[in-house]
Amino acid sequence: MKLRSFLTLLACCCLTFTVWAEDGSRLWLRQEAGSGAQVDCLLHTPVTEVAVRELKTCWKGVPVALQLMADADHRALGPEGYILRSRDGRIVISASGEKGLLYGAYHLLRLQATGADCSQLDVTERPAYDLRILDHWDNLDGTIERGYAGHSLWKWEELPAVSPRYEAYARANASVGINGAVLNNVNASPKMLATDYLKKVKVLADIFRPYGVKVYLSVNFASPMGLGGLETADPLDAGVQAWWKQKVSEIYALIPDFGGFLVKANSEGQPGPCDYHRTHAEGANMLATALKPYGGIVMWRAFVYAPSSDDRAKQAYNEFLPLDGQFMDNVIVQVKNGPVDFQPREPYSPLFTSMKHTDLMVEFQLTQEYLGHSNHLAYLPPMWTEFFEDVCPRSLRAVCAVSNVGDDVNWCGHDLAQSNWYAFGRMAWNPSLTPAQMADEWLKQTFTDEPAFVDAMKQVMLDSREVVVDYMMPLGLHHIFAGNHHYGPEPWYDVPGARRDWMPPYYHRADKEGLGFDRTSRGSNAVAQYPDSLCRLYGDLSTCPEKYLLWFHHVPWDYRMKSGRTFWDELCHKYDDGVKAARGFCDVWTRMKPYVDAERYDRIEEKFDIQAHDAVWWKDACLLYFQTFSKRKLPKDIEKTHFKLKDLRKVQLPISNYECPTKEMLPRYNAN
Ligand code: GCW
User: How many angstroms separate the alpha carbon of residue 402 from the centre of ligand 1?
Assistant: First the structure.
């Protein structure tokens, strides 16, 4: 090769390298620009323009036509459904609404990116839910409550100046079907509704609209006081009602398709209707009345628990079930998947099978508050599938998830955590997609379709959540996290006089007899909140699935498990399995090196290394601590502990509730 051509080639390589730095910013949307495919669309709206542009840029196949159709078949698919068909040497994407065309375009591009055969297409799609929403817990000062991927994407100080990431965010959502974003934390500042801020919200809404993403806001129930200067926020007060009506009309004048409000009321210190001896339904309906003329909705959270309750797990049910049937039809009660709080594993919240006359939506959490923040891989779809085994997807009106997105270049802190954002959108569109299908799609689009890579990493992803459960809280253990953050173990954390339901011993109940929270009829009887068949199953120690054992039972240390081991030995083995599996992830990743660019390889390698070390920290902390109650030896066939309990008791991580610890902050053992 001549020197000149060599230098040109070198220059091209450098250019490609700089343009496509593998910093994770491109998510799963990594298709190279194509050769300018032929794309026809008679309709010209901002939404169809996005669809056409996406196809023209990336589609590399036969000509594509986008067609709006008004026949019954298309109308039956709703405004977002679509049909993709190969016909006479071209592909027709047809839908009854512009959003259907947009989602159809992304479907086609996904097929191309995953290497599917696009020659004989005959696909009909309709989303399972009309509302597929991401909740951001972003504060106006730029921090994100429980956010581990940097600061907020929304730069309130700079708006109306626009960051290119706003559009990139909307595009990513549209590509997986997410159609709503609640912009701010449920612990909401009244300032969010100030006119200055609403104008900034409008800028975001305008950018998101062509991507089919509606904007919603979390509101502080006492805004009429904090912002409006009224003396009360009583929902039955005429002045309060008038204030909300006026505020809502101001919002819709700026944002005609505004989605509505999300409300956390009378929970963890937030104000709410109960402050005025009104019910949650009265509070929600007052806001719903103001929003109704504009088509807006209220998402009212059922995440409530008072220090006086004998069992926190029972409280949402106790407070909300009596209100069943009292909410207006534009109110949706938003319930966390489990009865306590996004733990690595919880049984489903019994509200889902009891509140039959109220629209409900499930709230999942993508940001890994209780799953190793953005240091650990925990691919969440297996958790959602487990939930949907008990809760029929059709019984829900909508789904939402607390976002794991921040302003980190790779959006989610951990490159592999992008898969949870991706999968949430796909699942919300079609909850019967399997975790494996979604992992497969995501891996092929984000990395490579090389089978050796996809097969190995798919297995790692599918195993990851269960592995986290094993090394953190196996067999139904829950909430034994450190007192001042939710990253590491601190099962011993106890402050005399403090709220019991914020202390791990409240949840694990370790004593010389055994371990676990007795929620049977002999204990708190939370089990009675489940339908009879489940109540019997869970309530009997011999039939309770072992994964929920310590959630429902105080289990004697020498109880005989299905494996034939004593409960104590089984617990030790579970932790040990978790550690070994987490180390196994590091080994698999080492073998993936040939298939991954160096930048992402190194970043992910460091994350897996942290995860494996943290697994040992969890195992040693929990087993050594519980051993002070069980007074039993660790089984000989598990790995010896590396740490001493007294040293682990001293670990304090210098992090706030919106930071992920760095490797340097974490306890590490010497493997040799
Ligand atoms: O998971 C807990 C978190 C709080 C959060 C709360 C909630 C936004 O620890 O940080 O507050 O739940 O869901 O309201």
Answer: 10
